[in-house]
Design brief:
Low-confidence stretches: 56-66
Strand content: 5-15%
Number of helices: 17
Number of strands: 5
Largest sheet: 5 strands, mixed
Shape: elongated
Mean pLDDT: 82
Distance between the termini: 9 Å
Strand order of the largest sheet: 3-2-1-4-5
Order of helices and strands: HHHHHHHHHHHEEEHEHHEHHH
Helix content: 40-55%
């Protein structure tokens, strides 16, 4: 694979939109997307030069980002109002005894965080813990309290998408040694669970007239059984298309996934699902240096986009060998469909996107900021796809792309 990444215009536009819509620094967004700060800064400067009136006549931050921030703010206000209502008896007194305040904190600790209540009531944590257990907390209790804070922090950092197993992996990778059972127990104590929803829509529309008899099955092992694995990045890929509902009509997403690392190495979104959509996704993988220089095998279903003469010609011109699954055999493309399931259940279906722009920005951040770079993957022994690629490059002395 090439060490030089040539970013597609779609990727650049999405990266710039993340900066201008989220209010985060260029440094933070660049780190999240795995690109150089100077590169992203140049894209942002170019965009601002071309859009000098942005922010005056145009809308502010993308709707989904605003929505998330407002959700968090409203939840915090609701929690604070509920707490202040319960604690109102203490605010009419000149100085409530620490014992009374500590007893109230003890009573409400299953509902509100202890540290947060101490701050609101002006009670030091040390005073509360001395009251709660005069002899002092045991090492086990202290350790459990610290783990609660770590689990809560990592859960929020994942935008509430990481479940028990993923949180355990992420914490251990950070050096916080903890078991899956302990994380599960703490999540129950905190009353949190990963966001999950079900959704399914078939997008495969076949073209009976397409000529595909020359396309052979290249996804078989030596025993003739299906084999959707790879040991060398960039050699074996899978792709598919899914629908994403928005307030301004359907948005179509095409992806390309590397079977060696399970990284989404190429993606493209458009208001239609014609052939250029899937070509652009593969072109991103090529331009970002994610295809093996000696060629790659690409698997897809028999949708009309993939069987078209235009797509077949593009693949032939870029050293890509096609393989298509059997009609009606859904598990032939299970890897691609599994990614779509994660995208929708962990993120997409928890928001109402008013237009294509807000949806595109959210999908890009999910792919590049969470799925590729942070989300643990069982295929990689718990490493994220990006970390799995880095580990491969380090093992074989290759320069990181």
């Amino acid at each position: 694979m090439s060490n030089r990444r040539i970013f597609t215009e779609e990727f650049k536009a999405g990266a710039v939109q993340l900066v201008v819509s989220s209010g985060r620094s260029i440094k933070d967004v660049a780190s999240e997307l795995g690109i150089k700060e100077g590169t992203l800064g140049a894209w942002v400067r170019t965009w601002k030069a071309e859009h000098p009136d942005a922010g005056v006549d145009e809308p502010g931050p993308v709707e989904w980002a605003k929505y998330k921030a407002l959700q968090a703010e409203n939840a915090a206000l609701k929690r604070e109002n509920e707490f202040l209502g319960k604690a109102s008896a203490f605010f009419g007194r000149a100085e409530a005894p620490v014992e009374d305040l500590s007893a109230f904190i003890e009573q409400e600790k299953a509902v509100f965080p202890i540290t947060w209540m101490c701050t609101k009531l002006g009670v030091s944590r040390a005073s509360y813990y001395r009251w709660a257990k005069p002899a002092g907390l045991t090492p086990t209790a202290i350790r459990h309290s610290e783990l609660r804070a770590e689990v809560a922090q990592e859960f929020e950092k994942s935008n509430q998408m990481a479940g028990r197993d993923q949180l355990t992996t992420l914490l251990n990778q950070r050096g916080v040694k903890v078991s899956t059972g302990t994380v599960g127990s703490i999540m129950n104590e905190l009353g949190v669970r990963a966001r999950r929803m079900r959704a399914w829509k078939n997008t495969t529309v076949s073209d009976p007239s397409a000529r595909t008899e020359h396309i052979k099955n290249h996804m078989l092992d030596s025993h003739g059984k299906r084999d959707f694995t790879a040991t060398v990045p960039g050699t074996r890929l899978v792709g598919d298309i899914t629908y994403l509902k928005t307030g301004s009509g359907w948005l179509y997403l095409a992806t390309v996934i590397d079977l060696a690392t399970r990284m989404v190495v190429g993606w493209s979104m458009d208001s239609n699902m014609r052939t250029p959509l899937v070509i652009n996704a593969l072109a991103m993988a090529r331009d970002h240096g994610r295809l093996h220089p000696e060629g790659a095998i690409f698997h897809s279903d028999r949708g009309s986009q993939y069987t078209s003469e235009q797509f077949q010609a593009w693949c032939a011109g870029n050293k890509i060998t096609q393989y298509m699954g059997l009609t009606g055999v859904c598990w032939d493309n299970a890897v691609a469909e599994n990614f779509f399931s994660h995208l929708k259940t962990e993120m997409y279906h928890h928001y109402d996107f008013k237009n294509h722009l807000s949806a595109r920005t959210a999908v890009m951040e999910y792919i590049e900021g969470w799925y590729n770079r942070r989300r643990p993957h069982s295929n990689n022994q718990g490493l994220s796809p990006a970390n799995a690629l880095t580990a491969y490059q380090q093992q074989y002395g290759l320069a990181a792309a």
